[in-house]
Each structure stands twice: as structure tokens, then as C-alpha cells.
Amino acid sequence: MTADVNKIAQDAINAIAERIKNLNRLNIIVAGKTGVGESTLINAVFRDKMAETGIGRPVTDHMRKITKKGVPLCIYDTRGFELGKEVQNDVKREIADTISRGLAANDINEAVHCIWYCINTASNRIEPEEIQWLREISRENELTQVPIIVVLTQSFSEANAQEMRKTLMEENLDIIQVVPVLAESYEIKGLGTAPAYGLDVLIQVMEEALPEELMDTLQNVQIASLKSKKLRAQAAVATAALAAAGEGAAPLPFADCAMMIPTQLGMIASITVIFGFNVSKSIITALLSSTIGSGGATVLGKTVVSNILKLIPGAGSVLGGAISAGTAGVITAALGEAYIGVMELVFKGDMSLDDLSTSKGREAMKKLFRRKLKESE
């Protein structure tokens, strides 16, 4: 059995690596005046501190390309944008050229998928020149139709931010949304701390704007919305559970339960990629081991014994040495939801990735798995 678990764990790691390798790259242009907090915003939304000082290579006089190995994301950061007409025109031309080159490549990995235009809410005003610049870039963008999102950064006052948002929306600009954000919690002396907000809304707007081919990439690189990650991961679990139920519709003899393994490994790989964590083989081994009951049953192995089946409503007795379609689906869903549960613990900082391969992590996974089985009642 140990050999089986080790092999399955390695197969899972291989599946994860393959999914990551096949992720499409998300390309975003970020523009705005100097000092609007672009770097803070980028680092708050995306993993691995994409906008650390010194990261990124110049591609034009007013644009740098920010990438990091292992992160399927490219940020074109238009640093140095000022209100001077000449610089405005230069930045506008550079953006248009970057979009055109991406379009000409006829490759989703080269295309520009979104533009963020950042305005500092703390300035308490929107410069007329910025409204005009947005109109002009929209005209340049008429054919390519790259989604433009205005991000109101440093929105310490939600009331002011909403007023600015209202003003911008009334301009009837060719933009898809105006999103006020406070990228980092801000301590106000004597008054407490203003909590960060709005980043999850920005992710939701991105989900609505981007094509389906970039959804797994978006979830992999973003760290701003646990809710979005969970919804995407739960959709993967639902798909896998349905597939497993179909595989069990025969019903499956115990000896043929290995047929469900590729479906369940694909599910684990999808969840891992969505959360964007660097999961090791030892963590996957712990996940599999923790779903082995005291009677020696493994969810991903060749047998499922009665002490596990008793936790599943409607599973009843094991007739003819076979697993029903419903049972196969329930087991797969419970495994997936349990894995999402431990990923959530890591995301929130309640547990580290290293913890997952320890007895603490195995116990947490075991409890989550059994709870998810019981919740199917």
C-alpha cells in the first residue's frame, strides 16, 4: 500500500507540473501618474512580490516589463507618467504598440489582456487631462478592445472614492469598471487602522473581463481573493465528482477502482494550481495517507472498506464487491473539499505548507475529509 501511495503521490506531482506548464500567461498594462501606488497595488494583488525594487527590464523609455520565473504573469508598468502632453502621447503610443505587437503574434501568451489605469484617490481630484487621456487611449483601443479598468488607489476615504467613481462613470468612458481600493491596511494615528479593501472586487472584475483560457492563470497568480480561488476550486471538484460518478455507474468492482485515480489526481492538480502554492510530494503523500482509514482503506487505492462507507449516507452495504456511482462521486467530492480546506488554512496563515506533511497536517486533513463525508448526509 505504501508503494501505491508513493506512486500516486508522484503521479499527482507530475500532473501538477504539467498543469502549471500549460497555464497561459496573463499580460497586464499598468498606467497612471507617478506616485499613485502602482507597485503597492501589484504586490497586494499578485503573489511573489512582483513589483519589488529592481525587478523588471526597460522595454521603452516609459515602460518596463515585470516578470518572475515560475509565475505566469507579465506586468507592463508605464513608470514616469506625468501630465505633460508629450509624455502622455509617448505613453499612449507605447501602450498601443505593445497591444498591436501582442495581437500580431496571434498567441494568447503574447496578447495584452487588460489595462489598469490608476488614479490616486487621496489627491481628491481627477485631472481633466487624465479624462482626456483615457478617451484617447480608448479610441486607440477601438479595434483591439482590450478591457480597461480604472483603479482608484489609496482610497483611504471610501466616501471620497465613491464620489470619484461616480464622476468617472458619468463621463461615459470606454472602460469596463472603476474600482476603489486600499491595497494595504493603513494606521491612522489616534483613530485605529483602516483595513485594506477592494482588491477582491478587482479580481471579480478581472474574472468578468478575461477569457476562460486565463481563469486558472488568474487564480494561480492572485492573492487578493480567497473566495474566488475557492469558487474556482469547487468547480473543479464538482466536475471531478461528476466524472467519478460516471466511472462508478457500472458500478465499479473494487479491483477496478483505480479507474477513478486519474480523475482524482486531475482534481488535486487543478486545486493546487488554483491556489498557487509550491506543493511537494511529501504534502501529497500526507493527503493520501490521511484519507486512509483505520481499517486500511484508501480513497485513491483499490479498496474502500465498510468503515469509510458507513460515513456516506445511502452507501449502504457493499453489495457484490462494488462501489455505486453515488458513492464514487461522494468520496471524490469529500477528498477535493478536504484538500481545498487545507489550502484555505495555508492561505489564511493558520497553517504553513511545511505543516501539511507533519502529523498536525495529516490530522487536519483527516478531520476535514471525514467531516466532508458526513456533510453529504
Describe the protein.
The strands form 3 sheets. A 7-stranded mixed beta sheet has the order 2-3-4-1-5-6-7, with helices on both faces. The chain has a two-stranded antiparallel sheet with strand order 8-9. It is elongated. The chain has 2 domains: 24-221, 3-Layer(aba) Sandwich (Rossmann fold); 225-375, no CATH class. The two termini are 30 Å apart. The longest helix has 24 residues, at 325-348. Strand 2 and strand 3 form a beta hairpin. It is built from 13 helices and 11 strands. Helices cover 49% and strands 14% of the residues. It has helices at residues 2-21, 38-45, 85-104, 128-140, 158-170, 199-209, 215-221, 226-247, 261-275, 281-290, 306-309, 325-348, 359-375; strands at 26-32, 57-60, 63-68, 71-77, 114-120, 148-153, 177-180, 186-188, 192-194, 252-253, 322-323. The protein is of the alpha/beta class.
